[in-house]
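so i finally got all the pieces together for this one. its two components total, 663 residues if u count the protein bits. some of the lines might not be protein, just check the labels. i wanna see the whole assembly predicted at once instead of chain by chain like last time, that was a mess tbh
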Amino acid sequence: MTLSDYSLSQLNSRLSGDGVCFRSGRFVSRIRSPITEVAADLLRVYSGAEVCEDQFVDFDIELLPSGGYRRFYKPQVNFSFNGYLPFQPLPQEQSLPLMEWGLNWCVSNHFQQALVIHAAVVEKYGRALILPGQPGAGKSTLCAALVSVGGFRLLSDELTIIDCHSAQVLPNPRPISLKNKAIDIVAGLQSGLNLSRTVRDTQKGSVALLQAPPGSVASWNLTASPGLIVFPKFKAGSEGGTLQELSKGETFLQLANQSFNYPILAEQGFNAISRHLDQAQCYRFDYDGDLTAAVDALDGLMQDV
Amino acid sequence: MFEKLIVRALKNPSEVKEFTPAQWQEFLSQGYQTGLLARFYFLFKTQTLLQFVPPPLSWHFNSAHALSLAHRRDIRIEVEHIERALKMVGIQPVLLKGVAYDLAQDKVAEGRVFSDVDIFISKTELASAEHALGLHGWNMGKMTAYDRSYYRRWMHELPPMIHRERGMTLDVHHSLLPVTCRYAFDPTELQFDVSNGHCVLSLIDRIIHAFCHLLMESEFEKGLRDLSDLDLLFRQLDTAAQWNQLLTRTEQLGVGRLCFYALRYVHLVLATPVPDFVLQGSQRWAPSAPVLGLMDWAFPKVLVNALSMTASWRIKLAHFLLYLRGHWLRMPLHLLAPHLARKAWMRISGSAEQETAI
């Protein structure tokens, strides 16, 4: 059973009652909320998510309206994890982006069973393509293009999880978060993409979420072998994109720096990165915004690994 | 009376053997709320109960354990840095709280979350300690001029110092309780131990510090975790002589009332084995019947239930009551009223946002 088997009103009454349990990536979340917009938002970007009744829940989450005068004036939403509020409240129309940031926070703050790196990751030919990148480098845009037109499988657009022993990438397929200009660019890639409504004026500008493809969601438990690590950078005028090989030492440091729990895992984290890099190639990729050319270039590179 | 699963499991960890899946789910949620998952990993491990954790939930306990170990490793390194910096000016700091438990190999160090390092330095050495720490990269965070002068004038510690490269927080205490607190005692009376080359408070004084800290609180976000710390500390006293020593030291330092509450609530909530003669001996520090009635109503609620948006009005009221009590104990009214008024005005006028760097 998937979330889409619920009607809007059924989902609403579940959310405001005992909550709805579904697989969000590789974890099971229970969401409760009296806020009516949440049901429609979930049906937009999580319609293919497996409903997990009678299973253990990893993340117990409530999206709660602020009390007091905020009930009437500019209503707010709070993200509550087992009763704890890790974030400041946001305007209520930002409930869905807040839930997504919160779910990332749940993983990056509590999951220490594998190395978690701030990077997008996709799979093709059984191998992982990891895309780390500073905000604005275009990793989410590239990631969205790779999975929607390039035939890549989405593992995660935000959190790359590497098993410390096998060095395999553990998928955590959730909606892709798109910001500002990327929203229209991705919407224009292909018709029929499931995009959430665009939420404006968040702390990251305008945000929309793109539903993860059903095939990616279904194979949440299928790991990917090391393949490529590519640091994308949007650079106008780099026609079709330029690739430049990077040393493994430099890549190692970049990955360790962008990891949430490298200092916590210590030696195990070191092993995860070094074992992964032993079997992977590393590049810097400057691209000019021509996503079709970029997807072709990366696909070609993946075939040669 | 209805008792929370997490309290039942703290009192007797083997109760988890009988937990239903729904109870495990609730227990996990309470474990996150109270910050006690790593403590339970330790309790389960030592009592061979880990195999009863449902496999899909075991990563939560394992991860909390990994985090606790990492914190512990980090604070040991931090202690080395702090001691080296202070050695330059000939000061040997006394380590307090979590770090002290770790260095003294107290059971309570197992599965504890170590967020910062606390040290004690005598007031006469404070200026040179601050200077040496500053040279070695510890700086005070941003705060308003009012907050800064408040700390200097009334508190028992310097504003928190943060290391500019490692980001670890250091609290430098020159007394164990705020100078304005009615239970404040002369810090020169403290007794120290040396453990593996590091200076810590003696076991009895570590316990006294722990209960003073908890019972002087005005906010109880992690009340149950602190109570569980106290439970494990009290359990380290295993002879009548040690318990007598606790009563004597408590009398000497004038913190009898706080000791009375600590023994009462740790015994009442977590069934800590406190000998009868100790409970009876602490009766002389009991408050009047109406006050005790009020405390008995509020403390067990607040220590077991954190304040949350969905908490019942009773729990919210109990938290509010003890919030007032905490401030009342820390400062006499003629200081407290202007302070709270000032803080409220800063919040309303937004001037709290205007932080100034030191």
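The longest helix of chain B spans residues 58-87.
Confidence is low (pLDDT under 50) at residues 352-358 of chain B.
anyway lmk what u think
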